[in-house]
Amino acid sequence: MKLRILKILSFFLFIQIIIVSVISSFPGFIEHYYSQNFFLMISKLQHLQLFWIPFSVGDLFYVVIVFWVIKWFIFLFKRKFKPFRLIIYQALAFVSVTYFLFHAFWGFNYYRNPLHVNLNLDPDYTTEELTEFTCDLIQKSNLLHSQLTAHDTLAVDYDFRKNELQNLVFETYQEFQNENLNLRYPYENLKSSMLSLPLTYAGFSGYVNPFTNEAQYNTLVPKYKQPTTMAHEIGHQMGYAKENEANFIGAIVTMNSKNEFIRYSGLTFALKYSLNDIYLRDPELFSIMKDDVNPGILKNYMEVQLFWEKHRGPTEFIMKTIYGNYLKVNKQPDGLKSYSYVVALLVNYNKKYNLYQSTQTINQ
Ligand SMILES: [Zn+2]
């Protein structure tokens, strides 16, 4: 590429950084013009272009980029990093284009209004409110668990074929009617990741490609966990960039599924967050409440935990550090451990609107 274009692109990187840091202080502006307008339009086009392709175009794109960067480095070594100025401009131009595409296609969603503001919810809750919410969740989870197993000590077995769970999660989104949340998901742009093994060792169950807006899920993760992961990633696809908000979206959608297995994944997912939060506030109360949970549900939790322990290694630590820093750069200092905000959304949403709105009769 001509040096002049490289210089312009490099300069544009600094301009972009300034623009992003200024605009990020105006969440209302981003919410209105980007997240609820431009982003919805552009993501719809991306889904329409890519949903019918059976493999992840984004994964392929990542693989090509990695090879291309390796090839570039080999070339640089051969040339002994000369001419140095040109190399710096090439690198800056590459970062500049990536930075632009990231923000245009998805990244600005990090700076939109927090979900509790859009939903007019309190960000706080008392331990009494949390306890009451969790007790109710335990009851609902236990009841559904006993319908899905022969005994309360058995874990729920997810005997599903390839793509079956994925289709059920898609149907769940189709059926989910909620006037407070705009969760229309007309194209099933959800794909099994070609990179499931490296993803497992990196400690991730799924991810959204911010450039193509495809959602990928790790097929090696226990099937019990997959529905909430898929629903979480779809939440990201719809512009809920923050981890805790995507978790809330994943939970509310799956908890209201007409399919018992998807609903069980959702209820116990929300239960896990709530119990974790009780533990942080009152460990004694936690152990009393944990005893009320069917042992089979705890076995499903254990199954997921053992899976991750089996694949734990240095890669996971490195990737989680990189991802943690990525979240910090995108103004999410709580990073991966934002438990209480998910619970705040669940508890306060339930108080104001009723979390089990769509399946009131099913969940009773
Ligand atoms: Zn996520």
From TrEMBL:
Transmembrane segments: 12-30, 50-74, 86-108
Alphabetized UniProt keyword annotations: Membrane, Transmembrane, Transmembrane helix
Annotated InterPro entries: DUF3810 (IPR024294)
Domain of life: Bacteria
Protein name (record): DUF3810 domain-containing protein
